[in-house]
Write a structure and sequence with these properties.
The chain is an all-alpha fold. The chain is 76% helix and 0% strand. Helix 2 packs antiparallel against helix 14 (336-378).
Length: 390
């Protein structure tokens, strides 16, 4: 039987419920931001390149939807990243000197340039594309000469087997992304066209040099160290994606050469290396599929959502785009069916990965609501569990 003192306490509990829900939501968001992986910008990278591939291959509705989704995704991740740097500066700082997590910051460069390419190609917004190119170039300088200096001067370092992974090739992806967007926005903006093309050609060559350095270490790690299913992290597909974007950078440079005496003097070299990059990307595909079968079928590794899986979607979309552009500049129309097949695979991979992301968000919300309900019944404070990989 209720007493006269029970009613006020019930009213207080009812009034406190909205505050508890707001506090729970804030704490849940804070935990996600605190543990957010620097490579989360692979999401707008992947969304952007699949949108571009869809546009080039005639799937305009898909391209438009992905573009409309990608801009708020990109802006939202910047808001989360800046909030993390301000609210959790120590965790943010430690990521910059981590051999496992630091290369993920290069996704900010690549995502910025991919979104810039979307604005230029899909909307003709050359001013926005130029602004994003400038931002991408600044981010490239900051990431390149901060991360590699910090990792080089760090006193305690992991072994090669523990420290190297496909994510390191994001430095190559970032460099080539700057070259691609530069080819689109610089020649018409700079008085000396040859100087602009010299600049972007240098970036293209620099990206190729970085790939040769890094893939040698990664391949050595694969073949001469003990290899477990857990070692085959999702960014291993960047092994292919890095040379796919190098192919796209080469085809873009060939396409904008025009009457430039500089580019025409090295055109056979550019074409030869562009084909080399495409052939290398193609070689990686069966290898990576075989490693994936070994991981998930033979060794039965658990398949669950990880933000790093966006680093698998991006190479599929990039291979479709680079093959389409190679077929155009080299006049090999028989390659177009390959581009069509891979854009289908890229869209399917994007949908599955996005569904995994959405399911994880829904799961966290449901767990938060259940924890709130239990806390209301027991009087215990809400303590959400939100994995760092999310």
């Amino acid at each position: 039987m209720l007493t006269t003192t029970d009613a006020p306490s019930g009213d207080v509990a009812e009034r406190a419920a909205p505050q508890r829900r707001r506090a729970a939501a804030r704490e849940c968001l804070a935990r996600w931001i605190a543990g957010m992986h620097p490579a989360y910008f692979a999401m707008p990278m992947a969304t952007g390149i699949v949108s571009i591939a869809s546009h080039l291959l005639g799937l305009r509705e898909v391209s438009t939807i992905l573009f409309a989704l990608n801009v708020p995704l990109y802006c939202g991740l910047w808001a989360a990243t800046l909030a993390r740097a301000i609210v959790f500066p120590e965790r943010f700082r430690l990521d910059w000197s981590s051999h496992q997590r630091a290369p993920g910051f290069f996704t900010t460069v690549a995502a910025t340039c991919v979104v810039g390419t979307q604005f230029d190609l899909l909307r003709g917004a050359r001013e926005v594309a130029l602004a994003l190119f400038c931002l991408g170039l600044i981010l490239w300088i900051a990431c390149t000469y901060t991360i590699f200096v910090l990792l080089s001067t760090r006193e305690e370092k992991p072994t090669l087997a523990e420290g190297i992974n496909g994510g390191w090739l994001l430095a190559v992806v970032a460099t080539q992304a700057v070259a691609i967007l530069g080819c689109r926005v610089l020649p018409g903006r700079v008085a000396d066209r040859d100087a602009a093309l010299f600049f972007v050609a240098s970036f293209w060559l620099c990206g190729g040099m970085l790939y040769i350095w890094m893939i040698s270490l990664i391949f050595y790690r694969y073949t001469f160290f003990k290899f477990m299913p857990s070692d085959l992290m999702p960014p291993y597909w960047i092994n292919m994606g890095a040379v796919a974007i190098s192919t796209l950078a080469g085809t873009t440079l060939i396409d904008v050469a025009g009457d430039s005496s500089l580019v025409r003097s090295i055109l056979p070299f550019v074409k030869g290396f562009t084909m080399l990059y495409w052939a290398t990307a193609t070689w990686w595909i069966p290898m990576l599929l075989g490693l994936g079968i070994w991981r998930y079928v033979v060794r039965r590794f658990r398949l669950e959502y990880d933000p790093l899986y966006w680093g698998l979607v991006f190479p599929l979309g990039m291979y479709s785009v680079c093959t389409f552009r190679l077929a155009q500049v080299m006049e090999v129309p028989s390659l177009l069916w390959v581009a069509r097949a891979f854009v289908t695979a890229a869209i399917a991979a994007w949908v599955l990965t996005f569904l995994g992301f959405a399911a994880r968000v829904v799961l966290v919300v449901l767990l938060a609501l259940r924890s709130i309900a239990r806390g209301r019944a027991s009087g215990a404070p809400f303590r959400p569990t939100f994995g760092e990989s999310t």
